[in-house]
Amino acid sequence: MPGNYELLAMENPLLDIQCNATEEILNKYNLKANNAILADDSHKPLYDEIVEKFNVVYVAGGAAQNTARGAQYLLPPNSTVYMGCVSDDKYANAMKEAAAADGLRTHYQVTDEAPTGTCGVLITGHDRSLVANLAAAEKFKLDFLKKPENWAIVENAKYYYFGSFFLTHDGGYASALAVSEHAAENNKVFGLNLSAPFLSQFFKDRLDAVVKNADLLFGNEDEARTYSTAAGWGTDDVKEIAKKLAALPKGNARPRTVVITQGSDETVVAVGDAVSVFPVTKVEEQDIVDTNGAGDAFCGGFMGLYAQGIEDAPRCVAAGHYIASLCIKQVGPTFPKVGEREAIPNF
Fold this sequence. Notes:
The chain is an alpha/beta fold. The protein has helices at 23-28, 46-53, 63-74, 90-101, 142-146, 148-156, 170-185, 197-202, 204-211, 221-231, 238-246, 294-306, 313-327, and strands at 7-10, 14-20, 35-38, 57-61, 80-83, 85-87, 105-106, 109-111, 117-124, 127-133, 159-163, 189-193, 216-220, 257-262, 265-271, 274-278.
């Protein structure tokens, strides 16, 4: 594989089916306005219904793939590679093309056991409800990752970013654990996102096993508070939770940095006992097109600067806020195309 590809991201590649929805359809499928869940049988009709009743937009998605594209925006060419499982179908081809347009190298496992995964994205105001049908994405196998030509990608990388959605299926969990242990043993930087409240509620043992090796831990305020509840910490104060997350057991001596976003409110960062807050530069209301993927974009900006060896939290947060501000001016978790991009600030 030519190029350096020092940042490796992995998770569930999904094609987003996005629409401006209504309270009625959220209620019909028992969905919350600002949440992320895995589809069950009751959600099967949802995808066809939103295509039939709403103007939908198809966007190449999957949280960590969005983050990887955002990180590559700030990095030199051939810096970021993404792995996950897809089928050999038009949805996978659409994702490959979208990733390539943003300079992201994809190295997908291809399965014939299920179609490429999709995610219903129901926008109401500035909230989004995500309903993921993993399909092929949950067929990812540790055996694929451990093939010599694929594990060489892991060994070549110096920075890693995983979304915790990967932990809901055995192959993803085993792969996240293997890469996080490799990172801890070799003093490389492993980044993990808490991803959704249900992961702390129903997959906490798996989550904690990987958090142990996380040097960078990301999440939003809802995910942080849900983790606090699951851990029995008895607090919903985001600053206190960030400190407690930073103090969880660690697989090596590097201190853990915890980053909690709160939408347009201040971003909280904890390193050990030290907690800092960083106000968000507000985007004018008339310039906001779509907030879906803003959190993923923030992580992309943070990782994109961090992976250049700039391990300075205030600067990385500023980069995260910048990439998120670009994202919310676009439809879906996308970024300005090459040739339409403004000069990148000096963070």
